[in-house]
Every structure is written in C-alpha cells, then in structure tokens.
Target: 2-oxoisovalerate dehydrogenase subunit alpha
Amino acid sequence: MSYTAATVQLLSPEGTIVESDASAEYLPLIDALSDEQLREFHRQMVVIRRFDNEATNLQRQGQLGLWVPSLGQEAAQVGSGYAARAQDHIFPAYREHAIARIRGVDPLNIIKLLRGTTHGGWNPAEHGNFHLYTLVIGSHTLHATGVAMAMTLDGTTGTGHPETDGAVITYFGDGATSQGDVSEAFVFAASYQAPVLFFLQNNHWAISVPVSTQSRTPLYLRSEGFGIPGVQIDGNDVLASYAVSFANLERIRAGGGPRLIEALTYRMGAHTSSDDPTKYRENSEVEYWAERDPISRFETYLRGRGESDAFFAELEVEAADFAADIRGRTLALETPSTAKIFDHVYSEPHPVIDSQKQWLADYEASFGGDQ
Model:
C-alpha cells in the first residue's frame, strides 16, 4: 500500500517543492521556517540515524538485549516532533528515538531501557512531557487519550491561547490499528472531543504481516468511522510531517477535537533485532522505498536552496562523534543493584516494600562473598 491520490506531499522524492491543491494549505507554514530550522530538521534526522545504526551494532555485540530500529522513519518523527509545543504531551510507542531526543531525552536512557538497567528510563516531567516507551502494542493510546481528557477537565486547552493551550500526540504503527485498545481510544477521544493527535506511522509491516492484509482500505479512513477526521501524508517528507502536524495541532488546541495523521513511511530495517525481514519481504519493495529515503531527499532540497558542502561535512562529523559518545557511555554502564527494583514502587516509604527489600538483601547475603 503506497501513496494514494489523497496523500499530502510537500517535497517530492526528487527534492523539489510540490505545488498542488493538497499542498496549498500547508506551504505557507514551510515558507515561515527559517534556514536554521530547516538545518535542524536535517541535523536531527542524520544524527538519530547514526545513533540508530550504532545501537544496532551494540546489540549485535551483546551490549543490549534488544534494539528497535527507526531506520527510514526519521522524517515522520522529526517533522511531527518539531510541530509540537513545549506544553504538549507525547506518548511514544517504542521506536520514536528522534522525538525523544527533540524533547530532551538523552538517547542513552533509551539504551539503558533496552539494556535492562532501568525499569522506567526517564521522568516525563523532566523531559519535555515525553512519556515512557510502551512495548504493549497500542495500550498507550488509551493513556494519551486519558491525559487529553484531563486537559479538557483542567481547562488547560481550548482557551483560545495556542501558546499555552495543550495537546497530546500519540504515536503507533499500522499493526496497532488492529488492536482493540486503539479503537477504544478512538471512542473516548471522539466522545469527549479530547485534544489528541493520533499519529500513525504506517511502515507497512506489523512484524511479518503486511498492511495490505491488515486493512483493505487506507488506514486514515479508520478513524473517520469513529468521527475523527483523518489525513494521509507522505511520511518520508519531513516538510509534510511538520506542516500537517502543526496545522492539526493548532485546530486541536482551539477545541476542534481529535485528529489522525497516517504517515506513509517504510521500516527499512528489521522490526526489532530479533527479526529477519528477508524471510517475508521482497528486495524490490525495499529498493522502491530506498529511492524515497527521507534524508537524501531533504539533503537534495537543502542543496537546491544553496546549503554548503561544509554544512553536510560538519554534520557527518557531529553524527560520528555522537555515536562514539553513545558507544563509550554504553560500555561504561554498570549493573544496578537489585535493590533498585524496590525504590520507586511507591512515592513514599512503604513497610511491605521495605520488608521485601530487606528479605532480598538478606537472601543474597546468605550466599556469602560479593553480590
């Protein structure tokens, strides 16, 4: 399932601006972007891809239990990530590495999570309201909808002040649309007109099941059956991801109710490091999407605007340095004490937890030697 007549595209695969009836609404938002903002879009995509490749290598070398790559989905994430405002809440699935970095999460915290040295990873309140990764498919869309409903009840949205009004974005994949949790989230979001943007990254594969098996119609139409307007975009076009997300978030903050964006992209790598995509998909399909790579497309666009060779060369060095730093800090991680599992069960000391913690300490001490 590739692009359709309904797909909003602002930047063609050849790296040129698309002027059409579908793009006319959004092009003014692109014109308003500064050169530095455009450079930042590219910087984030390049650096996070290099990080992603390094994390994949670390997993193969036994440093991580699992890795979830985002290769090929950088534009969908970076564009929508920059469309959000500081007061917005972000509920990711488990491969939104670029958005995490944009919101202030140190990517090493993602490494720790998949290395198994942390049970939480980060405090959303300290990281731009970016909530924790969720491996349970689709369940976080309910959490996102609940927070959006709370914003309405608290009066922190829909007041007519977009600079302070809040919204929620929740990210999920095509496979998650087949989960009941997502449908339930649609029901509550529509019923209560919750200020939530459902951002569907359709990367065409729910592990080994193609999207064509999951749905006989474009996925953006599913939400419309619940009364939630949907739009389909070229998810490998960072400008479309930014502009369409920005426009829909503004409508949501103004009291326009929930919306859905289906970003057509492609998972260039494996579903996770435990998956072998060569077992279920054709090379021709991968080659088709490689020609629509989001980073090379945007680089062509920037070069056409006069961006210098020096910028791209410096960015490659920055990305390599970032990856090397991640590798060094990963190798330096220490195994946490088993006592850590008790530390944040409750916000205040609890006698039962304290007794369990002491029992485990005594049990380990009974073996003698260093534990």
